[in-house]
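Minutes, structural biology subgroup

Action item carried over from last meeting: produce the structure token record for Nuclease-related domain-containing protein (Metasolibacillus meyeri). EB confirmed the sequence was re-checked against the source entry. Recorded below for completeness.
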Amino acid sequence: MIVLPREKSVREAMLTAAVCRGFFEYKNELIRVQQGLVGEYYVDRQWDDMQLNTPYFLLHDFQTSKHQIDTIFLCPKFLLILEIKNITGIIEIDNTTHQFTRKLKDGSVQGFRNPLNQAQRHQRMLEQYIRTLPIVYVVVLAHPKTIIERIPPNAPIIHSSGLESYVRDLLASHHPCLTNDQLEQLLQQLLQMRVSVKPKLNIDASLMRRGVLCNQCAAQMYYKHGNFICLDCILKDDGTLLQQALSDYYLLVDEWISNEQFRTFLGINSIHAAKRLLKKLELPYVGEKRFRKYRILWKC
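Output recorded by EB:
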């Protein structure tokens, strides 16, 4: 049973907004994040075909203030941490240096954070709070063409195609530790540990590209008679692109915006026109007159 579904990544949305707003130095990081999400969704589908004869809960993208766990599998016998990696090439983990590397077809070698160390860190954290269940972990390689060449002996690293067999072996080798009621209590304990952490990017907001941007030519749209219009494409915004612009502001600057900031960011000259548009948007606000600030609502 999926208790925490995997939702749209706030970091992906933030990086997408940053690139769209002119911070192209984040483009490679955006690609890496998107590739990682593809891998996580691919592994998530593996659970759909499993017919396990035990009650269990799946918690995807489990976050605390200092930890982000790709997936937690919770059952009466154990808690399993999944660290999911979506990388191609030939991978190696040096048992002495703990260096995790991959070799590509052109012979180049790249280094990454060691996923075993990441999973062990998550394990130590959970063991501080959970004493009633064994806590184990596995690194799951999502890409089918990844070649595992050299890893430490007995290191729990598998391809996603072997996930079901791995879970069934764990179920066969462990005995129940919790009743169904105790399992539900532990689930609630985990859910109470969760926190929502908004990531931050080191950007200078004053350098951010402003305005409602045309989704056809990417030009800044002109505000006239209550509408945003692209002078190049003659495209008239139906409100979708304005909402996207406000989402970008929320992600990169702040969730609160004043009338003056609203006008500056969107290129609206009239304070009264901005006031009418803000009223139309029905954003919640605090303060009165020139001290009023509006809260931008954003959903994953």
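Discussion: The chain has eight helices and 15 strands.
Next step: EB to file the record with the rest of the batch.
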